[in-house]
Design brief:
The protein is α/β, with parallel strands linked by helices. It has two domains: about 120 residues, Glycogen Phosphorylase B (Rossmann fold), CATH 3.40.50.2000; about 180 residues, 3-Layer(aba) Sandwich (Rossmann fold). About 40% of the residues lie in helices and about 15% in strands. It contains 14 helices and ten strands. Helix 10 links the parallel strand 6 and strand 7. Helix 1 runs parallel beside helix 12, helix 6 crosses helix 11 and helix 9 packs parallel to helix 14. The longest helix is centred in the last third of the chain and has 20 residues. The chain is elongated, with a radius of gyration of 20 Å. The termini are far apart.
Length: about 325
């Protein structure tokens, strides 16, 4: 089935920040090839809907989390396109006829698989320039930076300590189990890294982010690492997008904020354990993206990460002096 320029299209995204970022190249491709179509998007919660704020490829964004409400909304559209199959599970029992992508496989990036799916629906040829995320910031985000980075030093590194599990279940549930999560680097390792970078990089401020449920992580980190700017629980997706344009480098494990960083030109150090970095790593993979992949997160050493970060800073200083 091909989509037409006269269609009114409802796109079903997800409840995840990262998965919704993966959708943005496909949505932009849809707008590129169907400039007159109505393209509205459904996200499953308010936080994940923030990914689409300010996106000029989209007419309207709706937050819907029940099958009946989705079916009611879908009646107003000529085509309903699914970009995240897990969303269908969360909306179990929907009656709407949908167009959905093939089952994802592990040897191609998630975003590319969605892009290929949409290209097949509009008979479009994918260009390299189509492989870009779309995450916007606005004037209020710039004001947020001005207020929160006023005392920052010259060099800025952003470390994202959080993850979706804490957001969903709360710190009391997750506090004792964080060390067992296969996607996360231990908080002790992040603290040790912060100290090492403070010693190695002059005039450095470290920014930490996460959700409000992760304030316990911020408290641990700030106690040990000086000159920490704590933005845990304070940032929207737009604020994070704006932050990426101000920092020198971003560090995180596999999480949604890596993909917000990948929408910018900031150097990234991404830490991956058993999860598939081909499918969910920085996209598109660029020269300034450094992926450390081990069988277990605990096998990633602080020294290995610190060396990559300091080497990146040395290269930046070299280019700046030329």
């Amino acid at each position: 089935m091909n989509l037409k320029n006269t269609d009114k299209i409802l796109v079903l995204a997800s409840a995840s920040t990262g998965n919704n970022v993966f959708c943005t190249p496909a949505i932009r491709f849809l707008r590129k090839h169907l400039p007159s179509a109505t393209i509205d998007v459904v996200a499953l919660n308010k936080l994940s809907a923030e990914v689409f704020a300010g996106n000029h490829d989209i007419n309207n964004v709706y937050v819907i989390n029940s099958a009946s409400a989705f079916d009611k909304k879908a009646k107003d559209y000529s085509q309903v396109v699914v970009l995240n199959k897990n969303a269908l599970k969360k909306l179990a029992g929907i009656k709407t006829v949908v167009i959905q992508p093939p089952t994802l496989h592990g040897n191609e990036h998630h975003a590319d698989q969605l892009l290929n799916f949409i290209a097949s629906l509009v008979d479009g040829k994918i260009q390299e320039s189509d492989r870009e995320y779309v995450v916007a910031s606005d004037e209020s985000s710039q004001q947020f930076l001005a207020q929160n980075l006023a005392g920052a030093k010259k060099n800025l590194i952003l470390i994202h300590l959080g993850c979706g599990t804490t957001l969903l279940h709360g710190w009391k549930f997750f506090y004792s189990r964080r060390a067992d999560d296969e996607k996360l680097w231990p908080i002790g390792a992040y603290i040790e890294l912060g100290k090492a970078l403070q010693n190695a990089i002059p005039d450095l401020s470290i920014i930490i982010t996460g959700t409000s449920n992760e304030s316990f992580l911020a408290k641990k980190f700030k106690k040990e690492v000086t000159n920490t700017i704590d933005l845990v629980g304070k940032t929207s997706v737009m604020d994070l997008a704006a932050l990426m344009t101000r920092i020198n480098l971003f560090i995180a494990h596999d999480c949604g904020v890596i993909h917000i960083a990948a929408a910018s030109k900031v150097p990234i150090v991404a830490l991956f354990g058993p999860t598939n970095q081909v499918m969910t790593g920085p996209y598109p993979l660029r020269a300034q993206h450094h992926v450390i992949k081990k069988d277990r997160m605990t096998e990633i050493s602080v020294m290995e990460v610190a060396n990559i970060v300091t080497h990146t800073f040395e290269k930046q200083s070299h280019f700046a002096s030329e």
